[in-house]
């Protein structure tokens, strides 16, 4: 996420997708708890919110994703299937487009979720918990599917002006993911030199359904990987 300026706290999207953010993650006491969990997390500050949307919204987004094409990608760093960019355009572009085109049809659950990730309410949530400062409304957003053999090797996510990275897990809500299946988000401390990741991760986050994991992108600090499935 290059994380991201606009709209008011009244995020405009179907209530089924935004209920969890409004009802649970906006509460001052919940945010205070998350700030403390974020600051104390090791090997570097991070947080996991679950349930993030709620089961109904999760299932709606999963149904939408089954209708999207995903292309297999493989490099020295990763192997997975990936969709095209799912992020909405920045606010300024949306305003220009709205003037030129008629009103669009009601958004799907996936379109609604992408707008949530670019919304002011989500940016405020991330900024308040992480203390990273103001975020603009540019988002890099796509869906990756890790089939058997899928993986992502260790890196720090430093790309352009990216400040926050987040992962929302859409695994099967009817079958809880287990560590033996792989796919965990691995977090690495720096090695003795302080410039490279250590040989082994010190924290693993399982890809549990409806969980949102996020951290601040920092050179030489935010080392992470996805364990082979």
Q: What are the salient characteristics of this protein?
A:
single chain; 229 residues; alpha+beta; 3-stranded antiparallel sheet; 6 helices; globular
How would you sum up this structure, described in words?
- This protein has 229 residues and is an alpha+beta fold.
- It has helices at residues 15-23, 28-40, 55-65, 91-100, 109-117, 120-130; strands at residues 46-49, 71-74, 78-82, 144-145, 151-155, 164-168, 185-187, 203-205, 212-216, 224-226.
- β2 and β3 form a beta hairpin.
- α2 (28-40) crosses α6 (120-130).
- Residues 1-15 have low confidence and may be disordered.
Provide a compact summary of the structure:
With 229 residues, this protein is α+β, with helices and mostly antiparallel strands. Helix content is 28%, strand content 17%.
Main sheet summary: 7 strands, antiparallel
Return residue spans where pLDDT drops below 50 for at least 5 consecutive residues. 1-15
**What's the shape?**
globular
CA gyration radius, whole angstroms? 18 Å
**Which structural class do the helices and strands define?**
alpha+beta
Strand content: 15-25%
Relative helix content: 25-40%
Q: Figure out the total of helices.
A: 6
Give me the strand/helix succession: HHEHEEHHHEEEEEEE
The average pLDDT is 86
Topology:
Layout: H1 15-23, H2 28-40, E1 46-49, H3 55-65, E2 71-74, E3 78-82, H4 91-100, H5 109-117, H6 120-130, E4 144-145, E5 151-155, E6 164-168, E7 185-187, E8 203-205, E9 212-216, E10 224-226
Helix pairs in contact: 2-6
